TrEMBL record:
Keyword hit for Hydrolase: yes
Gene3D superfamilies: Metal-dependent hydrolases
Species per Swiss-Prot/TrEMBL record: uncultured marine thaumarchaeote SAT1000_04_F07
UniProt GO molecular function: dihydropyrimidinase activity
Protein name (database record): Dihydropyrimidinase (DPYS)
InterPro entries assigned: Metal_Hydrolase (IPR032466)
Major enzyme class: hydrolase
Length: 130
């Protein structure tokens, strides 16, 4: 089983509490991909590897109109966290380079966020979505 860890904050602050909570509540074998949403997280990829995360996830479809994500909740809290993200070409390039040097795979949602945004705008104009 795979878990996609989605956090908008520093992994140096949130990774260990997430791993600890997972170890107490997951009853199947699992691995975690750390999603990278910003430059700070790019710089923390080595830290993630040092703490057992050996693969990363990129969402190239997150930017512009579709630049929001529901992040993983903090352990012990029941509050949805929505954040704006802008996954740029620069972030993608840095993640791939870092992952290569760390010997880690990167899973990529390779949709173009501008195309995704157009696909959202059309139904909204027809009043299908509010």
């Amino acid at each position: 089983m795979m878990r996609m860890l989605r956090r908008g904050d520093s992994y140096k602050n949130s990774l260990l509490p997430q791993l600890n909570a997972s170890s107490k509540s997951h009853y199947v074998d699992y691995a975690i991909h750390a999603s990278i949403f910003n430059s700070q997280q790019v710089d923390e990829m080595q830290y993630c590897v040092e703490n057992g995360i050996t693969s990363f996830k990129l969402y190239m479809n997150l930017g512009g109109e579709v630049g929001h994500v529901y992040m993983d909740m903090e352990p012990g809290k029941n509050l949805i966290q929505e954040e704006r993200v802008e996954v740029t070409s620069e972030i993608v390039e840095k993640v791939v380079k870092n992952a290569s040097s760390l010997g880690c795979p990167v899973l990529v949602h390779a949709e173009d966020y501008e195309e995704c945004g157009c696909g959202i705008k059309k139904p909204r104009k027809k009043s299908r979505w509010t």
